[in-house]
Amino acid sequence: MAREIFAPIGIHRAPTVRTRESGGQDGLVWCNAGYYPTLDDLAKIAMLYQARGAHGGVQILNRELTAQLLSAHGAIVKNADDLWKIITFIRAHYDGDPDYKFGTPKSQQ
């Protein structure tokens, strides 16, 4: 997941809680409560969903399955305009800078 989904959208560190396997080795990620994304990471994931799984002209997630996920009854924002309002709100309040561009260090903006 890190290599196939997170890296292409600019998430390079994904702190997670994992099961502990025999011998003390890390096991599976606790997907229900074991991922600790930053606000920036959440926005990148939201933007990936808004684009129906595409990023930078590349289809990362299955377009049809992503559309089905977004159309789930009452489970997630169904209106793209509402989703865009959420993303815009996050952008406007990230570090107090409404012109912040996700994934770009402030020194390069």
Report the major sheet. Answer: 2 strands, antiparallel
Overall average pLDDT:
77
Could you say how many structural domains there are in total? 1
Q: List the strand order in the largest sheet.
A: 1-2
Low-confidence parts? none
H/E element string?
A: HEEHEEHH
Task: Write a brief structural summary.
The protein has 109 residues and is of the alpha+beta class. Helix content is 36%, strand content 10%.
Description:
By secondary structure, this protein is an alpha+beta fold. It has helices spanning 2-6, 39-50, 63-70, 80-93, and strands at 18-20, 26-29, 54-55, 58-59. Strand 1 and strand 2 form a beta hairpin. It is globular. The mean pLDDT is 77.
Keywords, please?
109 residues, alpha+beta, two-stranded antiparallel sheet, 36% helix
Which secondary structure elements does this structure contain, and how are they paired or packed?
Layout: H1 2-6, E1 18-20, E2 26-29, H2 39-50, E3 54-55, E4 58-59, H3 63-70, H4 80-93
Antiparallel strand pairs: 1-2, 3-4
